[in-house]
Specification:
Elements: H1 27-31, H2 39-58, H3 63-82, H4 86-95, H5 107-152
Helix pairs in contact: 2-3, 2-5, 3-5
């Protein structure tokens, strides 16, 4: 059985022009990674605070231990602020539970304050991971677009180069 090609209608043998994929990030995800000026320090303090929370949960605390944890909590927040951008410092100050200087907090108050701080830090870390993942996906999409253009022989605008578009005259 012979196949017959209809040549009455012109068929373009040019590939479809490449589609430009633009991956936009919202302002929050693009800037979250930039808001942590000292990520290693923030990670160390975060790990310490999480460990302290575990200790506070597992052992009864006397007055001296509660006083010491109150000091550690205040120092931890101050040290965290040294590694954060001003926007995150403001957020942390709004959300952190302040202790009064004259009284020793109860075990419950310490647990709540530590848990709140651990939760905030975990949210910060998840935000950073999300921003980095979005940046990685945008870079991957851009690389795939460049590969398709190289394979198809098109320039960035999707045009097929003419016969004299090479580097030689």
């Amino acid at each position: 059985m012979a196949s017959r090609v209809d040549r009455s209608s012109p068929v373009s043998e040019q590939p479809d022009p490449p589609q430009v994929v633009v991956v936009e990030q919202d302002e929050d995800s693009a800037n979250v990674a930039d808001l942590v000026e000292q990520p290693a320090k923030v990670m160390r303090i975060g790990s310490m605070i999480k460990q302290l929370l575990d200790e506070v949960k597992s052992a009864p605390l006397d007055e001296a231990a509660r006083q010491r944890l109150k000091q550690i909590h205040a120092t931890s927040i101050k040290e965290l602020e040294d590694g954060l951008a001003p926007e995150l410092i403001e957020e942390l100050e709004r959300l952190s539970l302040p202790f009064t200087d004259d009284s020793v907090p109860s075990e419950a108050e310490l647990r709540i304050a530590q848990a709140q701080l651990v939760g905030w830090l975990e949210g910060l870390f998840h935000g950073i991971q999300t921003a980095l993942f979005a940046q990685q996906m945008a870079a991957r999409a851009q690389l795939e677009q460049m590969r398709r253009q190289a394979i198809e022989g098109t320039d960035p605008q999707g045009q097929v180069p003419g016969p004299h578009s090479g580097p030689y005259l």
